[in-house]
Amino acid sequence: MYKTWEELKSVCLGCEKCELCRTRTNVVVGVGNPEAEVMFIGEGPGENEDLQGEPFVGRGGKLLDKMLTAVDLDRKKNIYIANIVKCRPPKNRDPKPEEQEQCIEWLRDQVRLIRPKIIVCLGRIAAGRIIKSDIKITKEHGVWFEKNGILMMAMLHPAAILRDPRRKPDAFDDFLKLRDKINEVCEHTYD
Ligand code: URA
From CA 188, how far away is CA 49, in angstroms rounded? Predict the structure, then answer.
């Protein structure tokens, strides 16, 4: 368990626990406010994220930022964004279970330090890992779950919305549900 954010970050940046370290450009630890009450968790870095060292900076990231802005959330101000795996899987394949297993401890440490009130999982891989293994995103996005005192919701992955823009209204509804829940349970997110 890391006592400070700086300590966690500096050790994570040198991680060689799995083979993804051999092909990565940057470890993508996360971005945002370590005091955030709301945490977003994605799957893993893609090409742009690997090159820039920040989560969700490609086309999907731009869409995510737009939807965040619509409900007064900002990756630099009042949320924290991280991924299940911190290094890019080659050719953007799904992270292997053993890679997820090795990497998830970093995420656990991040959650322990941040102590979010709400976790939003973006896409099937994150939701299956964090909320429940048999989650069906198409049916269960926008549904609230509670685990270890933390409220959790799965949302469609931004890349899935880009592939099928007809899903945008559903995705937007989930952000409105998130805004309502923040107003209900968070203390300083909307200060
Ligand atoms: N997709 C993810 O799940 N995470 C990122 O950081 C980028 C794309």
Answer: 29
Strands 144-147 and 150-155: antiparallel
Q: Are strands 38-42 and 118-122 parallel, antiparallel or unpaired?
A: parallel
Q: Is the CB of 44 under 6 A from ligand 1?
A: yes
Token reading at 128: 């299956």
Give the model confidence (pLDDT) of 32-60 as tens digits: 999 999 999 999 999 999 999 999 999 99
Is 46's C-beta closer than 6 angstroms to any atom of ligand 1? Answer: yes
**56 in ligand 1 pocket by Cβ < 6 Å?**
yes
Alpha-carbon span 63 to 56, nearest angstrom: 9
Domains of the chain: 5-184 (3.40.470.10)
CB atoms within 10 A of CB 165: 10
57 Cα nearest atom in ligand 1 = 7
pTM above 0.70, yes or no: yes
